[in-house]
Amino acid sequence: MIRFLAHFLIILAAWTLVIKYIFPVSMALAEGVPIITYIYWDFWWVAHLWLAWALLNWQRYTVALAVGVSVVEIIIVVTKFILFFGDPEWTIWTTNWFINKVFVLACFCMLLPAIFVADRSSPFDKNKTAGRPPAMP
Questions:
Q1: Among 56, 114, 105, 70, which Cα is nearest to 122's?
Q2: What are the extents of the domains in the chain?
Q3: What percent of the chain has pLDDT over 70?
Q4: What is the tens place of the pLDDT at every residue in 55-78?
Q5: Are 81 and 4 in contact (CB under 8 A)?
Q6: I want to staple 112 with a disulfide (CB 3.0 to 4.6 A). Which of 25, 61, 70, 97 is the partner?
Q7: How far apart, in whole angstroms, are the C-alpha atoms of residue 39 and residue 112?
Q8: Within 13 Å and on the Cβ side, how many CA atoms surround 95?
Q9: What is the per-residue DSSP string for 42-84?
Q10: pTM score, two decimals?
């Protein structure tokens, strides 16, 4: 599951780059407006790539990083959804944003419990063995 979620994060990062940078620049070029007109500046994709790397190359800090990023992302996305649904405006931009955030929320809601299952040194594990998940095929 951890390997799947790491690859999910890589796909989310690539998707984020497309919908927040490449697509907006393409639209701006097509409309003849400055290329930064539609860009939604967001650098979470960097954190997602770092976390994906840490999940695939287990580090001492991987559990803390995964839990921290998951909790922060879940809080941010749920808050943004609450604000958005207060007065939704469905445009090409908000629809892309919304679909992306649904997948981000799904990823981190799966990662949060999975990280404790994968981590043998989880605070819930009485054996406190090595701080590395079981071997991944």
A1: 114
A2: 2-118
A3: 86
A4: 999 888 999 999 999 999 999 999
A5: no
A6: 70
A7: 30
A8: 3
A9: --HHHHHHHHHHHHHS--TTHHHHHHHHHHHHHHHHHHHHHHH
A10: 0.80
